[in-house]
Write a structure and sequence with these properties.
The complex is a heterodimer of chains A (81) and B (380).
Chain A (H helix, E strand, L loop, with lengths): L1 H22 L17 H12 L10 H7 L3 E2 L7
Chain B lengths: L13 E6 L8 H17 L4 E4 L7 E6 L15 E5 L10 E4 L4 E2 L5 E2 H12 L28 H11 L6 H9 L23 E5 L2 E6 L2 E5 L6 E5 H4 L9 E5 L4 E6 L2 E6 L2 E2 L5 E2 L14 E5 L4 E6 L2 E6 L4 E2 L4 E2 H4 L9 E5 L2 E6 L2 E6 L4 E7 L7
Parallel strand pairs in B: 1-2, 1-3, 3-5, 6-7
Antiparallel strand pairs in B: 4-5, 8-9, 9-10, 10-11, 12-13, 13-14, 14-15, 14-16, 17-18, 18-19, 19-20, 19-21, 22-23, 23-24, 24-25
The chains are: A mainly alpha (81), B alpha+beta (380).
Chain lengths: 81, 380
């Protein structure tokens, strides 16, 4: 059971990374981008996305965030690249 | 709402669109109709007009494609991104692309083409994504609800920020009619204001003017100015269903209340206040009242009168109380008999409309002082 959770989490991270790259001009500059600290690039981007989409701004990949970003959407970015 | 950086928009008011290819999910005629309906929605709230181009280059080129399709934003298979469009500009500016891997429908199942196209054409006209989850231009698609007008006030504010309102003088509409495609359904013909058979659905004062409602249109007239302005109700209040049963204004609050069936809306200018429509029962009217024939606000007494068939209820704004029981109209307003179509107050008189007649009533003397034609206000 723990393995399944880990796999799910990795899928979630991969999904959010692509989402942020597509719609929030997130650029992956090496592994440091994925260090889940409060002020890491990806946390900042998740906060920016949550703020734009009207979600609670947690900077975390919580279930509400994951649910919403898996909805169909317009392919145009939310943040001008 | 927000616009693209630099606020690109079309300089012209008549735009051409062309459908380059069709999805196999729908009959081509359904695709044409959905696209046309989407453009008509934007036309209804702006001066913009759209013409379908069959062969040559158009401002807005529409196509269906899957995955990579010669631009920088490949589609991603079913779900995810369902379509995208580009800001106004030359070449691919304004173009709209729809992901062929979606299941395109004209119903509430699958991905509704009309609803997606309406959003994408918002981009084609210069709107960027909105942060308002209720707005059409919010980036995430919600289930399509055909019973609700698809443009939110946020969308209308945005597009009118770029292009202004739709023309609301009749002559403008006639001019714009020249550029319409011949098979476009004609707007219902307006009755002649000087016809002796003229009747109204509702009449109210409105920011110093008088508004006369008839089917899908209204006339607006300042009591001391000869010119009459005419417009589509939907161009003023897009989210209102056609036809108004009754209306009254509370001038000191700059609010006008519009009734249709068992619902009412409160508007301020051309803005519907949040939280409406509401049911008329919240006003204190009994459940067996399903429609209001006429209503007006008696400024002298601070009372609102609701007329239904041959009776009326009055609501006292000061002590916030509604009559427990209705009263006979003819008892309170001698000379006014039976059902009335509309009523409004001008200066110290009440004007009751009943079919082709209009009764000027003096509340001080409690009697009818003049019998007028309904078109009395139009200087025929």
């Amino acid at each position: 059971f723990p393995a399944d959770m880990r796999q799910k989490k990795e899928e979630g991270i991969q999904f959010i990374q692509i989402y942020l790259e597509n719609y929030y001009s997130f650029t992956k500059d090496g592994e440091s981008a994925f260090i889940w600290k409060n002020n890491s690039p990806i946390t900042k981007k998740i906060k920016e996305m949550q703020e734009f989409l009207g979600l609670e701004v947690t900077g975390k990949l919580d279930s509400n965030t994951l649910d919403l970003i898996q909805q169909p959407r317009c392919g145009f970015p939310d943040v001008a690249g | 709402f927000s616009t693209f950086a630099g606020e690109p928009k079309w300089a012209k008011k008549v735009l051409k669109y062309r459908i380059l290819n069709y999805t196999p999910d729908l009959h081509p005629a359904d695709v044409d109709a959905a696209i046309k309906k989407a453009f008509n929605i934007w036309s209804s709230v702006t001066p913009l007009k759209f013409i379908k181009e069959e062969r040559d280059h158009a401002d807005i080129m529409i196509s269906f494609a899957a995955r990579g399709h010669n631009d920088f934003i490949p589609f991603d298979g079913p779900g995810g991104a369902v379509a995208h469009a580009y800001a106004p500009g030359r070449d691919f500016g304004g173009d709209a692309h729809f992901d062929e891997d979606e299941t395109w429908t004209i119903s509430t199942e699958g991905t509704n083409l009309f609803y997606v196209a309406l959003h994408e054409f918002g981009h084609s006209l210069g709107l960027f994504h909105s942060k308002d989850p209720e707005a059409l231009m919010y980036p995430i698609y919600r289930k399509f609800d055909p019973s609700v007008f698809p443009l939110h006030q946020d969308d209308i504010n945005g597009i009118q920020h770029l292009y202004g309102r739709s023309p609301n003088t009749y002559s403008d509409q006639r001019e714009s009619a020249e550029v319409k495609e011949p098979d476009e359904p004609k707007e219902p013909a307006l009755p002649d204001t000087c016809s002796p058979d003229l009747t109204f659905d509702a009449v109210t004062t409105f920011r110093g003017e008088i508004m006369f409602f008839k089917d899908t249109h209204f006339w607006r007239k300042h009591p001391s100015v000869r010119a009459v302005d005419v417009g589509l109700i939907s161009s003023f209040w897009p989210r209102l269903p056609p036809g108004v049963d009754a209306a009254y204004e509370v001038p000191e609050k700059d609010e006008t209340v519009l009734f249709k069936g068992n619902e009412f809306w409160v508007v301020r200018g051309d803005r519907i206040l949040p939280g409406y429509p509401q049911k008329i029962y919240v006003l204190g009217l009994p459940k067996d009242v399903t429609k209001i024939d006429a209503a007006f606000y008696n400024r002298n007494k601070g009372e609102i009168y609701f007329f239904i068939v041959d009776k009326f209820w009055s609501y006292n704004k000061r002590n916030r109380s509604m009559d427990r029981k209705p009263r006979q109209i003819r008892e309170a307003f001698p000379g006014i008999n039976g059902k009335i179509d509309a009523v409004f107050q001008h200066k110290n008189f009440f004007y009751f409309f009943h079919g082709r007649k209009q009764f000027e009533f003096d509340p001080g003397k409690k009697r009818v002082t003049r019998l007028l034609k309904t078109n009395f206000w139009f200087r025929c």
